Amino acid sequence: MELWLAPGSAVNTSTNLQRILVLDGPGLHNSGTIDQLRQRYDVVVAQNMDAALAALRGGSFDAVLSDTADFLPLDRALASLQSTLILDTIGEGVCLVNENGRVLWTNRRMRLWDENIRQRIVDTCQEAYRCFCTAPGTDTPHPSATVRSRKFGITIDDAHFFELVCSPVLDTRGQMLHVVAVCWDASSTRRLQQQIDAIDQAGQELSRLEEEAISRLNVMERLHLLEEKIIKFCRQLMHFDHFSIRLLDRTTNKLEPVITVGMPPEAAEIELFALPEGNGISGHVAATGRSYLAPDVQRDPRYIAGLDMARSSLTVPLMLCDKVIGIFNIESEAYAFFTEDDRQFAEIFGRYVALALNILDLLVVERRITSGRLVQDVAGEIAQPLNDISTDVALLRDHYISNDDMLQRLTDITTNITRIRDNLRTVKQGPCAILGRAEQGLTTADPRLAGKRILIADDQPAIRDTIKDILCRCGCVLDTAADGAQAMALLSSQSRYDLVISDIQMPYKNGYEIYRAAQRLGHKSPVILMTGFGYDPNHSIVRASQEGLTAVLFKPFKVDQLLSHILSALTPDGAADNKNP
After folding, report:
1. Are 93-185 and 447-577 in the same CATH fold?
2. How many CB atoms lie within 10 A of CB 10?
3. Does 370 score more than 60 pLDDT?
4. What pTM value is reported for the model?
């Protein structure tokens, strides 16, 4: 914007001017300059300084013309107007408050906040005024400000948090006049901090899982406990209600569903393999080990339908010991629902999930191993991302060396990185897990079992024949299958079974598939799964447990244990006698 000073100056017609503001004065009014300008330009005439400033605030001009005598006052007024414009443009709120809590001035951002927020800020400014006028370390009033500035936090509700820096405005003698505050909405920063705290809390909870499971719970309760914790943390940390976890079976390269929440049943039945193409986003992530964010799944050629009416998805690999052990998939009914922050936190949380699921396998497999080795492996996976964050924090410290607020935020991030590392070390020191069995004193001759029709499926003849012999003596009607295919054929026949007892690992079909077939074909019969020392490569126990599995028997098991589970499954009063191993 050009500033014309002399009213008698000739107008340069080559200058690209369209609109001119004229501050009218005696010299301009008497010289006829205004009339000359109107012949060439769009001229707005202001009769006084206030009118000129109002015109400048309400529109744009290519030049301002005034008498020489009005130049300095106008120039100062324009500088003040420019300062106000700058303060109205910045993203933070700015206000000036006196001792009595009267707001002397606010910028545009401050005025846009609702009355409750503004009042909380004003109250905080009054508190700052009293602090500034109090001698350090005492309640004694002090005639002048003793602190240059002070930072405050204001919690509005669970979703809104504001931070502000208050500074004293002093007169020439150093006496307090007012308080000026710069405030900003720090809700997103607070949510980031809360998520880091939640990850830290989840690490502590999972570090106690093994000890709790071994000391107080039986096998099935241990499985349900871990499932519940993983589901709770998925919702608590990520705030997602539609997700699934699949684990990789390295013998088949298949991604087996383990935990599914908020997804239709048919989504879990889709066969997916760890291949970069042709197996959906989950297969691609498992094959490449890289996260995948799909803002619009309807336009993504890799997406295979999961959640009804899904619009976006986020899939991250579950990493352990530099290897992909599965995937964590989250879906949403909203387009572009997931952000880069969601991806980064899902990756960190996914490492904890990988650790927890691996502990689950160890509990079920019934062998001892130190949790320290697992945490060391996971810590190795997390170490590099945490080191990268620490390096970035160090660089940002140098960049914001004079910004106390930003330095404090960076210090908080460093503190949380240290807490995560400390909790990983705590997990490493946890106890070992060895599964045990309870003794039962039931007799094999029980009239309540007479006439019950039972299917026994096991590829080991000794186990199959032993169970058949025991149950025949109890009066049961038995069918046997030597593999998964025979079991499926018998389930598909016209026979209806009161109980199905199936090995988990068999040729052609695994225990979970037998369980699902029994439910799908309308048997509605209870199912007991068996496995040698807990060997369960397809995670049948976890998957079937979510859907109502009756019991699990770990080979070698005792006769009284077998009869206890069968009695509990087939008779209303048998449950009182049964205690799962």
Report:
1. no
2. 8
3. no
4. 0.49
